Amino acid sequence: MVKFFIETFGCTANVSASELMSYLLLECGFEKTANRERADFVILNTCVVKAPTENKIKDQIIKLAKRYPLIIAGCLPQVMSDWCKVNIPKAALIGVDHFYKICQAADALMNEQEFSSISRKREFSQETKRVRARDLTGIIEISKGCTGECAYCIVRIAKGPLVSKSPDLILNEASTALKEGCQEIWLTAQDTASYGIDIKKTLPDIVKRISDLPGDFMIRIGMMNADYALQFLPEIKEMFKLPKVYSFIHLPLQSGSDNVLTKMKRKYSVKEYLFLIEELRKIKNLTISTDVITGLPGETEEDFNQTKELLERIQFDIVNISKYGDRKGTVASKSREKIPTEIVKERSIIITKLVRKMTLERNEKWIGWQGDALALRIDERNNTILLRNKYYKLISVDNPSLDLGKWYRVKIEKARKTRLIGSITSVPE
Question: 370-426, what's its fold?
Answer without folding.
Answer: OB fold (Dihydrolipoamide Acetyltransferase, E2P) (2.40.50)
